[in-house]
Design a protein that fits this description.
Alpha-Beta Plaits, 3 domains, 6 helices, about 15% strand
């Protein structure tokens, strides 16, 4: 069957397997040859998350007759649902895209893609929603957002647990906090100082700032440099 929405297909299958019991999952695993690739990956992820393992088969003579898999479990969730409107989509909230991480180079993007592909988790990179690094046209130097569907957050976090980026964004320089130093009278050290005027024509190399102290009446001039 031609699946026109691989990400949506994987989501619908994942949600269906979420609601199944452990025994139903084991029954599906025993008949995994009947499943699509997306269904097989979703089944493996669900069993891994629950810690459910398929035990080795017992000899044919000792094995009870397995229960048949219900037909609705083998039917692709996308059948008959292609015409559903977005308003009627029960998975709309789970399909909402959330940011998983941000990459700043193509090689880091390849690393994230490899980890998510290995876990079978659909992803979307950049504003173009690319599903492959080679299709990203945005500038990696400005940061590329990697998004996944909300339903896959649990598995994605595990998938990139050991992700080690080679390129991080440059750390912006810390803004220096300037501390205001009050002008003080050189005679009495009072800060009750009044600026009189700037007399640039009376100094050969630097302008002269003239001050007066309201506390002691002392007058003086300097180059305007205040030292702490």
């Amino acid at each position: 069957m031609d699946v026109r929405d691989p990400a949506g297909e994987f989501l619908r299958i994942t949600e269906r397997y979420h609601g199944m019991s452990d025994e139903e999952l084991l029954n599906l695993a025993r008949e995994s040859s009947q499943l699509t690739d997306s269904a097989h990956e979703a089944l493996a992820s669900e069993m891994r998350c629950r810690g459910v393992k398929l035990e080795p088969e017992v000899p044919e003579t000792d094995r009870p007759e397995p229960e048949p898999i219900p037909a609705h479990l083998l039917q692709s969730p996308s059948e008959g649902a292609q015409d559903d409107s977005e308003e009627d989509d029960p998975y709309a909230e789970e399909r909402e895209l959330v940011e998983l991480c941000e990459v700043w180079s193509r090689r880091d993007a390849y690393q994230v893609q490899w980890l998510l592909d290995r876990a079978g988790i659909p992803f979307f990179m950049g504003p173009e929603k690319a599903t492959d690094v080679d299709k990203v046209t945005s500038n990696f130097a400005k940061g590329i957002s990697v998004q996944i569907m909300r339903v896959g957050t649990c598995w994605a976090a595990q998938a990139i647990e050991h992700y080690e980026p080679d390129d991080e964004p440059p750390t912006p320089p810390e803004e220096k906090e300037w501390k205001e130093i009050p002008v003080r009278c050189p005679k009495c050290q009072s800060s009750d100082v009044v600026f009189i005027d700037l007399r640039g024509d009376q100094c050969e190399t630097r302008p002269c700032f003239r001050w007066t102290c309201d506390t002691c009446g002392h007058r003086w001039q300097d180059d305007g440099t205040v030292k702490e």
